[in-house]
Amino acid sequence: MGVKLLSKKDIHKIISLLEDCYQEPLCALEFKKDYELLFAARLAAQCTDARVNTVTPVLFKKYPTLEALAGADVGDMEKIVHSCGFYRVKARDIIAASAMLVGEFDGRVPGTMEELLRLPGVGRKTANLVLGDVFRKPAVVVDTHCIRLPTVSGL
After folding, report:
1. What is the spatial distance between Cα 116 and Cα 93, in angstroms, rounded to a whole number?
2. CATH homologous superfamily for 34-133?
3. 1 pLDDT more than 80
4. Fewest CB atoms within 10 A around its CB: which of 67, 100, 125, 150?
């Protein structure tokens, strides 16, 4: 028995229904500048978005520019991001990525997967988040919950 493929009409109907239900997806991480989302996503690893949203205002008030972040004292940064967990590596990555953005990308967050993955602490999930939310490029952000839910439900 073969698999029946959907017609283009059926596919467009499904897409239309999904767009009606989900409209514009919103990122739970709060940010004003492109690089703020990049660093908020880095802080969100093994941490809740709610916690990150309490830490980033303090971080970006103390270091309001990429240049300031690139020149930050790692010990001071560690104190600010401590409650997000893995604070040593996260602080180091944010400072190093800031320096790279300033030095190699003219202070701009790059808009390709390849360039984003070169930044310290940036993996595919963060890169896809930035590509989708900042650059409006098609991207799928998948985390462990997408694996855990089907496993728990027996799918």
Report:
1. 13
2. Hypothetical protein; domain 2 (1.10.340.30)
3. no
4. 150
